[in-house]
Amino acid sequence: xxxxxxxxxxxxxxxxxxxxxxxxxxxxxxxxxxxxxxxxxxxxxxxxxxxxxxxxxxxxxxxxxxxxxxxxxxxxxxxxxxxxxxxxxxxxxxxxxxxxxxxxxxxxxxxxxxxxxxxxxxxxxxxxxxxxxxxxxxxxxxxxxxxxxxxxxxxxxxxxxxxxxxxxxxxxxxxxxxxxxxxxxxxxxxxxxxxxxxxxxxxxxxxxxxxxxxxxxxxxxxxxxxxxxxxxxxxxxxxxxxxxxxxxxxxxxxxxxxxxxxxxxxxxxxxxxxx
Length: 275
Ligand SMILES: NC(=O)c1ccc[n+]([C@@H]2O[C@H](COP(=O)([O-])OP(=O)(O)OC[C@H]3O[C@@H](n4cnc5c(N)ncnc54)[C@H](O)[C@@H]3O)[C@@H](O)[C@H]2O)c1
Known about the structure:
- By secondary structure, the protein is of the alpha/beta class.
- It has a single domain (7-95, 134-268), classed as 3-Layer(aba) Sandwich (Rossmann fold).
- Helices cover 48% and strands 14% of the residues.
- The protein has a seven-stranded parallel sheet with strand order 3-2-1-4-5-6-7, sandwiched between helices.
- The chain is globular and about 55 Å long.
- Bound molecules: nicotinamide-adenine-dinucleotide.
């Protein structure tokens, strides 16, 4: 029960690694605010952790600053505090942003890399990426992280209890392999993590990032099987991560076990990224 008495808010907790974190945190004794733009999915996660007695489920688009503000007000009204925030909600692409062309070329590029060849395929993502596609990914992955962190820190400082924030970035932020908007927004999240960690350390608020490698979640199902196989070949441990393995790393960072950790980036990728 490493999180007994704590209140944790996890975004994108209706699916994949966000759901795994909500379940793990609840098992460790935390009350969990399960947030997802898909309200029904958030409710399902809450039901899995035991319902209203163990937290609350809310439908919220993290890219909507006002909605994020209202969400945190609700948390303040129910618990008067927030101890843990995981900025996990994220998207890789949006329909019509040129991703379809990218996928085919990226799979071939991945195959060449995995075979130890110098890649000759150009993905030319920037040529096909339209403004709306770029903006939506940045809005969710970067701006959403900013909006939620700002409200969480306001609440943490108001309650004076310190806290821990974990931002879910990606190995793509380190390698540059992935959609342009995705790599750029996830790399920016690492900068935000370091700046906040420096600023908030004296307040007892720790801020860290996790860079998951390819992980078996519904998001992974959006990429072609060929590309998924080429990704797996590039992982030294030879397999994708399970969502529960990312949740275990998040638990370490938000619990007392990680009390000397701030401003860090943890690569949980089977060795795909070594930093
Ligand atoms: N799966 C991977 O291989 C992988 C690798 C590296 C990083 N990541 C990152 O991990 C995080 C979780 O990904 P996942 O694989 O569990 O994905 P997922 O698609 O299974 O789950 C993401 C959840 O976030 C929710 N969401 C999306 N946009 C939202 C928004 N604007 N507001 C609120 N909720 C929103 C979705 O409804 C979904 O329930 C993401 O930030 C992703 O970029 C995933």
